[in-house]
Amino acid sequence: MIKKIALLAWGSLISDPGVLNTLIDKWEPDGPKLPIEFARKSDDGRLTLVIFSNYIVLTERWIKTQWCFIKTSIDDAISFLAEREKCSISRIGLFYPKNEFESEDEILRSLNVWALGKEIDAVIWTNLPATFNNEDEILNYVLCLKGDAYMRANEYIFSTPIQTKTYLREKIEKILSDCIA
Length: 181
Description:
- The chain has a four-stranded mixed sheet. A two-stranded antiparallel ribbon has the order 2-5.
- The chain has one domain.
- By secondary structure, the protein is an alpha+beta fold.
- It is 35% helix and 18% strand.
- Helix 5 (147-159) crosses helix 6 (169-180).
- Strand 3 (36-41) and strand 4 form a beta hairpin.
- The model has no long low-confidence stretch (mean pLDDT 93).
């Protein structure tokens, strides 16, 4: 029976859990390290955080995520997270840790070690794809931001938790700050 379900986050979900607000405990800063970067252009032009596959082998660029327990069934947890993220439930990651776990997937191995250490039965997270192929594309996009897209990207990046220090965050913040000056 699944009792302890952990919800992972690294961006706006932490400060704005939406429909999940009454179902979650407080956010803890010691989540698993994952390859997170500002590598997705959302529908409204914001640059948002996602798992960035380009960093899979660059574990020095992985960052510590945040997590909390979610107090509901696994199916409801997935549905509510999909509703909050305005995505299909197929875009919600789900992992069940196992003592005898072998995988070539670095992310799943990281999740497994972390979850077993916390005695967690299941882990869920938003698993939207990156829309940029590399760091140059990301930085070029930021350089070209204007108007509402600039304002939304600026608000999202500067409201992202301090702990979420991605490899490109400082460069992106500098570009955005220079655009204001």
